Amino acid sequence: MNLSISGHHVEVTPAIRNYLIQKIERVTRHFEQVIDVNALLSVDKLEQKAEVTIHVRGKEIFAESIDSDMYAAIDTLVDKLDRQVIKYKTKRQEHGRAALKHADLTDS
Question: Which of 27, 25, 17, 14 has the alpha carbon at shortest distance from 50?
């Protein structure tokens, strides 16, 4: 998995970098087939914004979160990503089961 973290009008400190890596590992526990992760952390006046794009086979999953605290924005962002990844994973699994079910019906 390739991980790219960049900051726009904010310095990405080692503490923020480690916190984000630790949180993204939660997403990769649910779905191991993550190819790339691109994270952008930005500050615009009093708003702290975190954006992440995850590249998986056949799809890109994007989420963003805005909060007054960067750590809170990252927490909310990872919750959104986690839900999206689980939804994508279950759709893939159901699609595979539907293909097997269809194959069983045509063989009869």
Answer: 17
CA 23 → CA 27, 59, 93, 99, distances in Å?
7, 21, 24, 34
Residue with tokens 């089961």: 97
- CB neighbours of residue 31 within 10 Å: 17
How many whole angstroms separate alpha carbon 51 and alpha carbon 63? 6
Model confidence pLDDT, tens digit, residues 30-75: 777 888 999 999 999 889 999 999 998 888 999 999 999 999 999 9
Domains and CATH numbers, the chain: 2-107 (3.30.160.100)
Find out whether 70 and 16 touch, Cβ atoms under 8 Å.
Answer: yes
Closest C-alpha among 73, 23, 75 to residue 49: 73
Give the number of other CB atoms < 10 A from CB of residue 94. 10
* Whole-prediction pTM: 0.81
